[in-house]
Amino acid sequence: MVWIRNLLVVLLLAGLSALGGPVAGPHFSWALFSLGLGLLLCWQLWQFSRVERWSHDLRRPPPASAGIWDETLARLYRHLRTQERQLAQLEGNVQGFFSAAQALPDGLVTLDQEFHIDWCNRIARQHLGLRLPADRGQNLLNLVRTPEFVRYAAQGDWPAPLLLRSPASFERLLMVQLIAYGQRQRMLLTRDVTQIERLENTRRDFVANVSHELRTPLTVLAGFLETLRDLPEDAIAPEQRHQYLSMMHDQAGRMQAIVADLLTLSALESSPAADPQPVDMPQMIANTVSQAEALSAGRHRMSSDVDPGLDVLGAPTELASAISNLLINAVRYTPDGQSIHVSWRREPDGGARYAVTDTGAGIAAHHLPRLTERFYRVDRGRSRESGGTGLGLAITKHVAMRHDAELEIASEVGKGSTFALRFPPSRVAGQAGEN
Questions:
Q1: What's the average pLDDT block by block, 10 residues per block, for the chain (435 residues)?
Q2: 398 with 260, same domain?
Q3: What local confidence, expressed as pLDDT, does residue 68 receive?
Q4: Residue ranges making up the domain that contains 129
Q5: Are residues 293 and 417 in the same domain?
Q6: How far apart are CA 255 and CA 216, in angstroms?
Q7: How far apart are CA 241 and CA 249, in angstroms?
Q8: Inter-residue contact 128 to 189 (CB < 8 Å)
Q9: Do strands 312-314 and 277-279 pair parallel, antiparallel, or not at all (unpaired)?
Q10: Which of 65, 228, 350, 359 has its CB 3.0 to 4.6 Å from that of 416, i.e. a possible disulfide?
Q11: Pairing mode of beta strands 277-279, 107-112
């Protein structure tokens, strides 16, 4: 349509010149036509200069009243605006993809066919020790030189992941997998499985420990049963038979104690915490002290300092298990003639603290962090002789966590030990707990 408009303008000039020809002569007509064409050309050049200046900054709207350029510029400007919107949308999508990749809990590295690094997220930088933009374009195999990974990358096909020690931290275990995508592109996914591996090791150790703890009493029971079965009844003296039966009874009781503690520990780990209710801790502690005195049979000097009006909110059976474990352990492992003191007092911050202090042999510092591990024993032989299962402190720790409490252990070789449960003010019944 632009050329039709220009043609009409030229025809209009020609018509006006032709009308002036009979009056002023042909020379005047040509001069008038040439002047009109010149003015039209100058006007078009001026409009073109305006368009040329606009072309330096296409984000601005085109110049208004650009003559024959109006329709063309309008279409061009609409096209540019559409392209800008589409480009902004694409940039937003790309930025969203990058943000999503950064938020992944796993590491992500994009590579070309030759394993040159294009991009990686924050987790991958932590897992593999990469740095961007310094490592962009670097060959990943030059930065992760573990032989297992180099052989894995050379396969060309990666149907299964690979377990790999992190180049950034040898203590961290990674599961890595290469994936081919797009046109000759590669993607490396990394996942930190250190905790999973530790849990698996803990499970294996737990199964091994349970098997070991039950094997000894089962062996004793089987041996005595075999002896009693194979020997004639009159071949065993009544005193010896009684001794055999007593030892079998002790070993059966030991297995029962292990199974009971295992069931308790399993229930604490798998069941939700019960609704808290007021627990009469002074009475519960008094009952526990009575049991400890019966177990001690006068071998220890027992004392207690209990606040009679201090109760907590919690599960009575769980708390009874925890306070009993700490006191019974003190009786079992404190040498004869030493003292054991039980205290239950309010703390300055409004909380409460249950503590069992003995004057026994004490525990070396390097054992303290592991005392709450299942079946961990400072002295295995002494623990079995005393009747311990190796699970009491593990149970106590779980009870403490379910009651928002802390298990505190302090010990010094030759001076004794203190095992304490510290409850926060929110767990203390009465005015402090209600506020």
A1: 57 60 58 66 69 68 61 73 79 75 88 92 90 90 90 88 86 90 89 83 72 77 80 75 82 81 77 84 94 90 92 92 91 90 93 93 86 75 58 88 92 91 90 42
A2: no
A3: 58
A4: 104-192
A5: yes
A6: 10
A7: 12
A8: no
A9: antiparallel
A10: 359
A11: unpaired
Q: Which helix (H) or strand (E) holds 105?
A: none
Q: Contact at 8 Å (CB) between 424 and 406?
A: no
- Is 277 found in the same domain as 262? no
CA trace torsion 357, 362, 367, 370 (10° rounding): -20
Q: Are residues 126 and 260 in the same domain?
A: no
CB atoms within 10 A of CB 33: 19
Last residue of a domain, one of 192, 220, 250: 192
Domain count along the chain: 4
**DSSP characters over 292-342:** HHHHHTTSSEEEEEE-TT--EEE-HHHHHHHHHHHHHHHHHHSPTT-EEEE
Helix, strand and coil in the chain, % to nearest 5 = 55, 15, 25
141 lies in the same domain as 176: yes
10 vs 143: CA distance, rounded Å: 73
Closest CA to 261 of 139, 346, 388, 150: 388
Could you write out the three-class secondary structure of 280-294?
CHHHHHHHHHHHHHH
Same-domain status, 294 and 246: no
Q: Which contacts (CB < 8 Å, 24+ apart) does range 15-22 have? A: none
Residue 207 belongs to a domain with what CATH number?
A: 1.10.287.130
Within 10 A of 383 (CB to CB), how many other CB atoms are there?
A: 18
- Write a three-state SS string for 42-74: HHHHHHHHHHHHHCCCCCCCCCCCCHHHHHHHH
pLDDT of residue 258: 79
The answer to whether the CB of 423 falls within 8 A of the CB of 353 is yes
Phi first, then psi, for residue 19 (nearest 5°) are: -65, -30
408 bridge partner residues: 420
Beta bridge partners of 179: 187
Give, rounded to a whole angstrom, the gap between the first and last alpha carbons of the chain. 84
Integer Cα distance of 386 and 332 in angstroms: 6
Same domain membership, residue 153 and residue 58:
no
- The enclosing domain of 150 has a CATH number of 3.30.450.20
Q: What gap in Å lies between CA 433 and CA 435, rounded to an integer?
A: 6
